[in-house]
Amino acid sequence: MSMLRNFFLSLSLLLLSNGAVFADSTDPLPSWNDSQSKQSIMAFVESVTRSDSSDFVPVAERIATFDNDGNLWAEQPMYFQLFFAIDRVKALAEEHPEWRTEEPFASLLAGKLEAALAGGLESVLKIVMASHAGMTTEEFEVIVSEWLETARHPVTKRPYTEMVYQPMLELLDYLRANDFKTFIVSGGGIEFMRPWTERVYGIPPEQVVGSSIKTEFEMEDGRPVLRRLAEIDFIDDKEGKPVGIHSHIGRRPIFASGNSDGDLQMLQYTAAGDGPRMMLYLHHTDAEREWAYDRESSIGKLDKGLDVAAEKGWTVIDMAQDWSTVFPAEVK
Amino acid sequence: MSMLRNFFLSLSLLLLSNGAVFADSTDPLPSWNDSQSKQSIMAFVESVTRSDSSDFVPVAERIATFDNDGNLWAEQPMYFQLFFAIDRVKALAEEHPEWRTEEPFASLLAGKLEAALAGGLESVLKIVMASHAGMTTEEFEVIVSEWLETARHPVTKRPYTEMVYQPMLELLDYLRANDFKTFIVSGGGIEFMRPWTERVYGIPPEQVVGSSIKTEFEMEDGRPVLRRLAEIDFIDDKEGKPVGIHSHIGRRPIFASGNSDGDLQMLQYTAAGDGPRMMLYLHHTDAEREWAYDRESSIGKLDKGLDVAAEKGWTVIDMAQDWSTVFPAEVK
User: Fold this and answer.
1) What CATH number was assigned to the domain covering residues A35-77+164-330?
2) How many Å lie between the alpha carbon of B215 and the closest alpha carbon of chain A?
3) Mutate to test the interface with B, among A2, A3, A5, A15 (most CBs of B within 10 A)
4) In the A/B pair of chains, how many CB contacts fall below 8 A?
5) Contact A106, A100 (CB under 8 A)
6) What class does CATH assign to B29-76+158-330?
7) Is the pLDDT of residue B109 over 80?
8) What is the pLDDT of residue B126?
């Protein structure tokens, strides 16, 4: 039985691993132009998965981490979670008369977004967290899911979950077909992402790392619930990303993908391990199909990261040049 | 090609899933006597995995959480991590002259364990954390691994990683063969467990939840490292267990296994979900092959949990009655 099982298993694995075996006949990254970026990615994946390769990496160590905002889905004209926060603040404003005079809520409610966001990511997260607390974790999941069903992007009028990048969906699939475990490591709220990452990206909740507020176990009418407290627990950005990776994954990634200076430490941490490594920066160069921004942007600023990438020889994806398709809606 | 692939795949899956298909011919839990506990476990697993069952649970939601100390490995005559801490304190004592007068180190170094441990788990964790900080995460992993190679249990003289429970190893395998994802959720240190849980339990680092100290990203000679700080980050015990589960897994388990009052909230949280649930308590009743302790024990106290289990009809494993084998060394 054992020999028979092993024979069929081997045969199936061979037939299943079309990413490697049938690379010639099926392009696993059809929305990527045949650029240096695509070639680098495929050469890396082949080198760590071919059992006769000197760079072979065992399956358990094939950890790939992806930033979310501006990397798996868009982040312009501002972080999508902020649109959620604004809608939520508006919905709750009647219950919170104090917000009319208290910043940054006063500015938010007055429609003065720039004033409300002036304090950068820390202040942004403060707004987000403050508008996200008080309910149980289950209630919050429902609130996020319902918002995603009805909310539309202000420019494209599409649901936010359709503002994801088709080439990155293909990259996630390609890595998983080659036995990588794919994780999100985002500055965004962990509980804002988990309700939809499995459906949209194929990434289950236990593989999502993000910023968090504290939760507390309590009994509500004899039933245990987790209450979301208005207190920041962890900010998963910049130096926080390697800390979040270590806390949640406990292993150094061999592949990391980001698009801003907030991802630099994650890429540095990934680069510092032994053996083969791949560090990817997505450069937003496509003003026509998406947005073009980098060193001067207040959202998704990519400045120091571009310099380090050039110095270290990391792969920089030029969105305009390297992607034949940006959003799934463009796929024929 | 696709049909051929599907045929072999189906055949392989059939041959691989011996837990379900060959349940009659192969006992997946050979170290369990044919008791009510074993029958309950197998009936539960069958009910959630049979596709025609009204209790069927999709693979993604088959989350099982296990306490570690006293549940997957022994915890007597005291928590094994404490033996590690004592050995570590002794090894570092020369560098820390202040420990000679500072409690609980003074008591530890004087061999007065009871005095050092008088403060309960919080104080125990404080001792552990204080003796575990200062180095990088990579250095700590080496320290733990080297200790496990040489340290021996004071009573059995076996390596600590052989003080694991054979029936629980079988249960972990059985659940995974039925597409459960198995997690550790322990009051012990997350970084104390991760270096060996994959080898010993088949549980990878990213599926280990535990207590933690803070870490900080820093550059050491131009290389990014994570430094372990002498500051408690999270205590994964009692009310902390559902919080840790939510933070790391983001999904409510459908199966939870513990052995002490420290696991009660995890079991309550698991029980409170919709659909089929299994809550397991391991009752240490075997003074001959292991240890017998429950309501009065200072380590692994099981008092309120026994009452709740009886009231709610949870499964209580009677170690002496239900297990034909306790430790792997007893397997013929």
Assistant:
1) 3.40.50.1000
2) 6
3) A15
4) 110
5) yes
6) alpha beta
7) yes
8) 67
Are A205 and B265 in contact (CB < 8 Å)?
no
Inter-chain contact B246–A216, Cβ cutoff 8 Å? no
Distance from CA of B217 to the nearest CA of A (A): 6
What is the percent of chain B with per-residue pLDDT over 90, rounded to a whole number? 76
| Domain extents in chain B | 29-76+158-330, 80-150
Q: Is A133 helix (H, G, I), strand (E, B) or coil?
A: coil
CA A197 to chain centre: 9
User: What are B129-154's pLDDT values in tens digits?
Assistant: 778 999 999 999 999 999 999 999 99
Q: How many CB atoms lie within 10 A of CB A161?
A: 17
Question: Which residue reads 């009204």 in tokens?
Answer: B54
Q: Both ends of chain B: CA-CA distance in Å?
A: 46
d(CA A131, CA A270): 34
Q: Which residue has better confidence, B36 or A121?
A: B36
DSSP state of A254: S
Which residue from B4, B16, B249 is facing A5, i.e. has the nearest CB?
B16
Q: What is the ipTM of this complex?
A: 0.88
From the list A12, A137, A206, the residue facing B8 with the nearest CB is A12
DSSP run (H or E) holding A35: none
